[in-house]
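Q: My labmate handed me this sequence with no annotations at all. I'd like to see what the chain might look like in three dimensions before we decide whether it's worth expressing. Could you predict it?
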Amino acid sequence: MAWVNNFKTSEEKFLASCVLESIIFRNKSAMSAFSSQIFHIILPQLLSDKKIYEIESLSKWENDLMSPKSRSIFPFRFTTIEGVDKKTGKSGQSLIRDVQREFFDKDLNLSIYTLTEPNFVKRAKSSINTIIILDDVQVTGSQFTEFIEKFNLTESPFHYIYIPYAAFEDSLNELNSRYENIDIQPVEVLSKEHSFFSEKNEALGTNDIELASNLKSMYLDIYKKYDIKLDEPLGFGEHALTYIFNNSTPNNNLPLLSYNDDNWKKLFTR
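A: Here is what I predict for the chain of 270 residues:
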């Protein structure tokens, strides 16, 4: 494996083996199962609880979502996060494109720029009351807060439902208590224990704080040794995740998993 060959010494290869053992890989089937959970359980329940829309039956719900007339049936639209924290929308757009093909008509999907444009809001608020935001991973409150502030969502006439496929427990609880018109409901909840350098990382085979600390020092030394210059060597928010989707590598992961240059071969595509 080309990625393992990046690591030269026996100690470095031990680190590489621990990283490989720690990887949580959500393949296409897993992503499809996550999406099914959103559209068959999470979203119907939230729409009912918030009195946004009542689903008569699952079969009718599925047919109506895929109908060319869906815009006139449902009081909600789908979008994703883009335009914040250097996030161009690549992962979010890729995710929502795949989900849309399987679960809902393309006319229900709109850019956040369109959904927050004053003229659109003025025209649409009589027929739309809710915006559903789909995303891959939400792990830092600062990123989502920047998104909310940039598009002034707290002043919007719409209600927002944010459904990331995974979210960190700490930021999830804090954000859910902060905004009255925004509900956050992830498919999977991550914790600090999901960090590769957590002493509770089961892949390390022991609850050894010293081992986790030594691996972290070794990992950071690799940057110096191989002259790898990255602003966030532990990933965005220093979460040091090894949590990968089949079509993207969230920036909260260990960057050496997706970093690539003439001297370092990537394992996953960013």
